[in-house]
Amino acid sequence: MPTPALSAEKLEKKYGNFTAVSGLDLRIEEGEIFSLVGPNGSGKSTTLKMAATILFPTSGKIEVFGSDTVGEPEKVRKTISYLPEEAGAYKTLTGLEYLDFMASVFLRDRAKAAEAVKYGSELSGLKDKLKEKIGTYSKGMTRKLLLSRAVMIRPRLAILDEPTSGLDIINGYEVRKTIKQLAKDGITFLISSHNMLEIEFLSDRIAIIYKGRILACDTPADLKKRFSTDNLEEVFIKLAQ
Amino acid sequence: MNIFLVLVKKEIKELLTRQLLISIAAMLLVFYVIGKVVGTQHKASEARNSDVVVLDLDGSALSKSLIGRLSGAGYRVKKTSIPCIDTALAAPEFKDDGLFMLIPAGLQKGLDAGRKGGIGFYSKFTNFSASATTVTASKIRRTITRVNDELSVYVLRKRSPSLDAGFAREPLAALEFVMVGGKLEQVSLGQALASIQSQIFFFPVAMFFIVILAAQMVMTSVASEKENKTLETLLSSPLDRWMLVVSKLSASALIAGALSGAYMLGMRSFMSGITAQAAAGAALPAQAALAKLGLIIAPSGYLLIGLSVLFCILCALSIAFILGVLSDSVKSIQVTIMPLMMLLMLSYILPLFIDINAAPLSVRLLLYAIPFTHAFTAPQNVMLHNNAQVLWGILYQAGVFAVFVTLAGKLFSGELLLTLKSPFKKA
Ligand SMILES: Nc1ncnc2c1ncn2[C@@H]1O[C@H](COP(=O)(O)OP(=O)(O)OP(=O)(O)O)[C@@H](O)[C@H]1O
Ligand SMILES: [Mg+2]
């Protein structure tokens, strides 16, 4: 079996006495688009943060391309790109300066960094607005800039927390198309979302998470079949009851 | 470009906001205005200092010569023919005058007959500012002594014409010496005090402002990255986390350094204006003596003070960095900065009122444990030739800095940064 892009075993995270994630087992193959779906506070962001090496599991382990996120975080960080939920950017920088800065943070090779900036500028679709300060951007513009930042460096694993929140229908659609295209190029995606339509359109596989536990994990089609419905939302509601 | 430089550049771009530039400009303006106002006030009160309104009811040869002598001694005598002191005090033409002298009729005759003369000195308050009251008091004392001198010369001449009245009145030639830090020079205490004051008066205030400003910068920088979650992105990147800490500290230290430089330049030109004015009167040998005493700080002294200030800023920055980690939003840093502000106030204000070296051991230990104290007292110590103490202070500051930077780095390499609940927030 090839090394999975991400694997979690008996993953648990406690904040003080509160257990946010418990006994989570996951396996994501390279090139997959994998979605975590669940109600507010179910532990999606917590799981993503552990995959992004910024939170440490209380017990269990999580590996990215075979490297442990706690034991070898430097190795993991070279392969991932993480987009936090509700993230902002440096308001006093222009969009272009921001992409430039982030490219040099992630890529030491200057030619590669320049290429990434070029690609990111195109992806963002912000055109001339890129020369203005981020402080003047709308919420959706900032989100698009951050999304472009996250994928422009072409990480092996992109961890996106609610990538399309705050985007309008057209922009949301474009972002989804881009994600699909990048997945075809071999980038693996771990995504969290509340938007069932988006999840169904995007995901190769879905894990439904509730109170820190995975209730079901399968392709959208198989999930619908298993719960004999043609609507993912209903699957979700049946599981949450 | 080196990644460290990229980080520092981004930090500086973030920190140098319009608000910061405006508040810096405002601060410099305040200092400039204070300097200007104090300078011109000084000159104005100096001028008014020599004004005296004289009501000569005696009209004798003595009273005339007395008035002439006062004029010769630099007083600006305003003679008035108003015969009544109450009217003169209330007269609109003398509304800005503070000193009136009433020479009663029969002064000369009385002295000739061996009776003490009674001259009235009236001072009128126009305001109660500290400088006005002390100036008025010393002016009265000076004027009375002067008048007394003149009258005693008159009496001596009258009684024994053969005597050298000037010599008899003042047979003493006072030679003033001042000893500082084991060095002895001939210079007046007044001059020495003026020189000390002129060089260290603004120092603690300016340092206080600069340190607070620098601390606020680094706290804002950390807290806003936390608030915007840009920090989470950086933490998940391949960047060495130490680099994040060091770049943030460096950027703030650079700006604070530039500020201190600007302040030093501004202060130098301002002070040189004042000292040039003073030096015009004072003899050059006095300047030389002051320099020998170390009361005019030499470049090496400035270097030592500068180093002490630099490490003071670094200590404050490293502590502020940790406080920034503890703040969950940019807004809350107004509260989170309090512990630092308190330490700074203690080490700023206490040494102004007490002699640290004579204070009880507990107070001394407390003050010297605060790294900022060493910088606040550095100019005094340099003037007193306690260079070793300044050096030890710098070493101690460097140690404190190292401890807090290590702590900050530890905080940045764990997850505490994201999960820590601010102790400053309820529940
Ligand atoms: N720093 C923290 N300290 C304490 N508890 C936390 C912390 N962060 C998250 N939690 C708790 O952990 C649980 C899971 O949070 P998490 O952010 O992972 O949820 P989520 O699934 O991403 O929710 P949402 O859909 O609202 O984004 C929540 O109950 C939350 O209150
Ligand atoms: Mg979330």
Task: Summarize the model shown.
The complex is a heterodimer of chains A (241) and B (427). With 241 residues, chain A is of the alpha/beta class.
Topology readout:
The complex is a heterodimer of chains A (241) and B (427).
Chain A: E1 6-15, E2 18-28, E3 33-37, H1 44-51, E4 59-64, E5 67-68, H2 73-77, E6 80-83, H3 95-106, H4 110-124, H5 139-152, E7 157-161, H6 169-184, E8 188-193, H7 196-202, E9 205-210, E10 213-218, H8 220-226, H9 232-240
Parallel strand pairs in A: 3-8, 3-9, 6-7, 7-8
Antiparallel strand pairs in A: 1-2, 1-4, 4-5, 9-10
Chain B: H1 3-15, H2 18-48, E1 51-56, H3 61-72, E2 76-80, H4 85-90, E3 99-103, H5 107-112, E4 120-123, H6 130-159, H7 165-169, E5 177-180, E6 183-186, H8 189-200, H9 203-228, H10 230-235, H11 241-281, H12 284-293, H13 299-326, H14 333-336, H15 338-353, H16 361-369, H17 371-376, H18 378-383, H19 387-413, H20 416-419
Parallel strand pairs in B: 1-2, 1-3
Antiparallel strand pairs in B: 3-4, 5-6
The structure holds adenosine-5'-triphosphate and magnesium ion.
3D architecture notes:
The complex is a heterodimer of chains A (241) and B (427). Chain A has 241 residues and is of the alpha/beta class. Helix content of chain A is 39%, strand content 25%. In chain A, strand 1 and strand 2 form a beta hairpin. In chain A, helix 3 packs across helix 4 and helix 4 runs antiparallel to helix 5. With 427 residues, chain B is of the alpha/beta class. Chain B has two domains: 277 residues, no CATH class; 125 residues, abc type-2 transporter like domain (abc type-2 transporter like fold). In chain B, a hairpin with a 2-residue loop joins strand 5 and strand 6. The mean pLDDT of chain B is 82. The interface between A and B is medium-sized, with 31 and 24 residues. The structure holds adenosine-5'-triphosphate (ATP) and magnesium ion. Magnesium ion binds next to helix 1 of chain A. The site of magnesium ion has 4 residues of chain A, from helix 1.
